[in-house]
């Protein structure tokens, strides 16, 4: 039988040698948590598979998707400031954690919230993955938030020069969101887009360093 669609991203044959050195942040909203959890798990699994070290993956949360651009902007700026201030004499616990966002309370295991005293905390982020799930309700809220978040995240990456992966589902129904996180309720569970976002972060972070 012919494929139903030609749509989608073919896996890259290429691997990224420097992946173990990359520092990646995942910032996720907590609205529509069941879907968010699966997407974040998918993104983390892809990052680890690509060779990113667990200790170089930083998780942060915000209440809803509307907060994602602000959080990404602060996180990227904080990482750059930490890297710039990290003179060798200051290392060893004196590096203040400039990040004021809430660490992810749902994940106390690994990979977990960063500690301000770890060596990884003094490096800037090579890419940020912003994860949110917007599901249309009966008012115009959905349209306004989708518009603000997509433009906001684009602005953050262009303004900061740090790649921001658009891990935001804009679904018209619950089922659309579930299927895009591999949680479909029908026979077809769908595909977890979080995996694509993890791969995109590694590809962009690896290539952007050479483009600059
Ligand atoms: C208010 C709101 C609504 C109606 N729907 C969603 C949603 O589907 N997904 C999401 O991530 N956030 C939603 N929010 C919350 C907003 O993103 C934001 O957190 C609040 O308006 C506070 O700024």
UniProtKB/TrEMBL annotation:
What cellular component terms from Gene Ontology apply here? mitochondrial intermembrane space; riboflavin synthase complex
Enzyme class comes to transferase
BP terms from Gene Ontology: riboflavin biosynthetic process
Q: What is its EC number?
A: 2.5.1.78
Q: Which reaction does it catalyse?
A: (2S)-2-hydroxy-3-oxobutyl phosphate + 5-amino-6-(D-ribitylamino)uracil = 6,7-dimethyl-8-(1-D-ribityl)lumazine + phosphate + 2 H2O + H(+)
Say what the protein does: Catalyzes the formation of 6,7-dimethyl-8-ribityllumazine by condensation of 5-amino-6-(D-ribitylamino)uracil with 3,4-dihydroxy-2-butanone 4-phosphate. This is the penultimate step in the biosynthesis of riboflavin.
Please give the family membership noted in the entry.
Belongs to the DMRL synthase family.
What is the designated name of this protein? 6,7-dimethyl-8-ribityllumazine synthase
Instruction: Give the organism the record lists.
Output: Apiotrichum porosum
């Amino acid at each position: 039988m012919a494929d139903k669609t030609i749509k989608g991203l073919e896996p890259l044959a290429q691997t990224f040698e420097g992946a173990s050195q990359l520092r990646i942040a995942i910032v996720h909203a907590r609205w529509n948590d069941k879907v968010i959890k699966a997407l974040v798990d998918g993104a983390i699994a892809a990052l680890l598979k690509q060779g990113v070290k667990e200790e170089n993956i930083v998780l942060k949360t915000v209440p809803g998707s509307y907060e994602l651009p602000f959080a990404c902007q602060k996180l990227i700026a904080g990482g750059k400031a930490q890297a710039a201030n990290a003179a060798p004499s200051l290392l060893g616990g004196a590096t203040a954690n400039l990040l004021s966002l809430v660490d992810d309370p749902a994940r106390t295991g690994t990979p977990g919230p960063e500690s301000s005293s770890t060596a990884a905390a003094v490096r800037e982020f090579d890419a940020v993955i912003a994860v949110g799930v917007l599901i249309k309700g009966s008012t115009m809220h959905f349209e306004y938030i989708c518009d603000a978040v997509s433009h906001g995240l684009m602005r953050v990456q262009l303004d900061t020069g740090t790649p921001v992966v658009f891990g935001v589902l804009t679904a018209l129904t619950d089922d659309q969101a579930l299927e895009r996180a591999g949680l479909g309720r029908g026979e077809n569970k769908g595909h977890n887009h979080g995996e694509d976002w993890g791969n995109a972060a590694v590809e962009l972070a690896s290539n952007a360093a050479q483009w600059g």
